[in-house]
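Subject: design request, 248 residues
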């Protein structure tokens, strides 16, 4: 009999699904299945009601400026529900456009998209796209040998994000990151991960994927969860290490 189960909420995949974001959902799902963990994926369209208390992980992907504006208008209607979920240590993964929406605003050339202010960050439109492979090092997260976790991905954004006093997901070793200036990439806040890394992100970084699953299971099963069973990640690790060595 399966000991654990998780429910993953994929918000607005018809609007926010650039650069292989759905691959992140697949990575979370498969790493649960391989361990005998029941996992359910719930996809929500723009006008669907969302019971956040039933979700163990919430995923927000990337979208164009027009799609972000549509999503933001909807999210503002359920802002209190999302804030309550985050305050209660709900797990959120927000990629690119989804990451920007968690901040105060995204200032475009001719308009400003108001955010949810879940994160104390803001984004302004830049003059060029920051695009290419990226490597970051996170001292907040550790690999299986307890070394700072190296995370690889791909970025493609013109928005420049400034994270004020938030803890970054990592420090840029190759690429641009939040704004191409201060060396930071992403945000870690409570159980929220915001980042510009996609491509998709999670299949390339199994340790990060397991970190997310661990946080969700610790919250769902505080008295019984003792840790994830190890998996044979030799193929994933070789691909990860190849990218790191190629870029650094």
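Subject: RE: design request

Done. Sequence follows.
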């Amino acid at each position: 009999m399966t000991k654990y189960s998780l429910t993953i909420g994929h918000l607005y995949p018809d609007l926010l699904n650039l650069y292989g974001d759905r691959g992140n959902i697949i990575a979370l799902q498969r790493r649960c299945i391989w361990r005998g963990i029941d996992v359910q994926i719930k996809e929500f369209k723009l006008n669907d009601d969302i019971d956040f208390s039933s979700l163990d992980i919430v995923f927000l992907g990337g979208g164009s400026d027009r799609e972000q504006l549509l999503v933001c208008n909807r999210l503002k209607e359920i802002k209190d529900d999302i804030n309550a979920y985050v305050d209660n240590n709900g797990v959120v993964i927000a990629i690119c456009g989804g990451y920007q929406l968690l901040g105060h605003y995204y200032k475009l050339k001719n308009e400003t998209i108001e955010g949810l202010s879940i994160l104390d960050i803001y984004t302004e439109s830049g003059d060029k796209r920051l695009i290419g492979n990226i490597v970051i090092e996170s001292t907040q997260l550790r690999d299986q040998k307890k070394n700072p976790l190296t995370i690889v991905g791909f970025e493609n954004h013109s928005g420049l994000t400034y994270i004020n006093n938030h803890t970054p997901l990592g420090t840029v070793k190759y690429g641009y990151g939040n704004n191409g200036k201060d060396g930071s990439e992403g945000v870690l806040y409570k159980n929220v991960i915001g980042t510009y890394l996609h491509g998709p992100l999670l299949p390339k970084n199994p340790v990060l994927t397991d970190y997310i699953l661990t946080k969700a299971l610790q919250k769902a099963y505080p008295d019984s969860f003792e840790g994830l069973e190890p998996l044979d990640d030799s193929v994933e690790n070789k691909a990860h290490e190849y990218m790191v060595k190629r870029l650094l």
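The longest helix spans residues 206-220.
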